[in-house]
Design goal:
Layout: H1 2-20, H2 33-58, H3 66-93, H4 96-102
Helix pairs in contact: 1-3, 2-3
Length: 103
């Protein structure tokens, strides 16, 4: 069960990298890292606002606004980003547990 959970976590990290890691998404073609960060933050804010509108108007969630959407997104993104940092560190150091998951 633990290996399956870790494999799921590795899959989530891989999906995260395809969308949010500038080494894999189309923002990699922008040479300046500060511009990459700027566009990533703009897209993050745009999608948070979008989901706030969807939830507030179309799904009828009372008390759910754009600020709440941004807070919820941050609450999801920070742990995923922390997990991604741990996985990057493990890849760099060649951790045995990560090799076992990737099999």
């Amino acid at each position: 069960m633990k290996i399956k959970l870790l494999k799921l976590l590795a899959w989530v990290v891989d999906c995260w990298r395809v969308v949010m890691d500038n080494r894999y998404n189309p923002l990699r073609y922008i040479a300046d890292p500060s511009l990459q960060l700027y566009f990533t933050l703009v897209l993050f804010t745009m999608w948070s606002v979008y989901f706030g509108f969807v939830a507030a108007y179309y799904m009828g969630w009372l008390g759910y606004d754009i600020l709440t959407s941004i807070i919820i997104h941050i609450a999801v993104v920070l742990p995923v980003g922390f997990t991604n940092a741990i996985f990057i560190d493990a890849e760099r150091d060649g951790a045995k547990w990560l090799k076992k998951i990737k099999k």
